Amino acid sequence: MTPVDRESKKVNEILIALENLSKNWKIDPVVRDMHLGLRSDVKDYIIKVNQITYHIPYLPETSDFLKWDCFWPECHNCCDRQGRLPLTSKDVSVISKKLGYPNRSEFLKSETYVSTWESPSSTSKNDSQIITTLTMVNLKRKKNESEIDNGKPISCRFLDGCGSCEINSSKPGVCWLYPFFSWSQNENNRVSVHASYQLTGDCPGFSLTKNLEDIMPTLLNYSAIIYNYTMNVNTTLREGLARIDMA
Ligand code: SF4
Ligand code: SF4
Questions:
Q1: Which residue segment(s) compose the domain that 225 sits in?
Q2: What is the pTM of this model?
Q3: Which tens digit of pLDDT belongs to each residue from 206-216?
């Protein structure tokens, strides 16, 4: 797929997700355009909180920061429209135990599949985009899920009738991480962890604020989650349970 095809596929998917979201939630038109990448004036506001360097979308002309709040239990759209559930090796151990498997191999055989996808999501030091190809073991979101379902929004089988996660305390790291994504960079021979929001049109919790202080509690709450998740991904890569290629 060419970069242009990739971009237009991504925009189409976000448009569909936003249409779906708009049935139940009011989406600020500026926030909508930010999801769709239609605002060329968006800058990264860089702020370091504990071990995480956050890249918060910021509109300098109006001094607006993008803020996120979770509307659960009124909303559980992220579990209703899950694209994939990649697992770290820690997730594999925790979830296989939770689901009663005697060992990791039995769990991997019955409950997971391997998939590869492109993630044009990381940003390098000089703000140029890196296309990352990831290959990871994924938890099946429906019993008979296979690689053809990779990336398709599916309602997760662990979502119960009340909008709660049946395996909440053992849910995959990627579920704890949402709506952030993270990446690590080597800076002066040290690992530095970065994070930003996933703007896929699936979460109604984004809004604008002129006050950075409004965002700080979330950034503080998520810094340990993001750091641990990113380190777990790095361990998973070292153990050979995942692969990452960058271009
Ligand atoms: S979609 Fe967003 S607001 Fe809704 S439950 Fe998920 S994180 Fe919370
Ligand atoms: S595992 Fe739980 S938190 Fe994750 S998508 Fe499924 S229901 Fe949602």
A1: 3-246
A2: 0.93
A3: 999 999 999 99
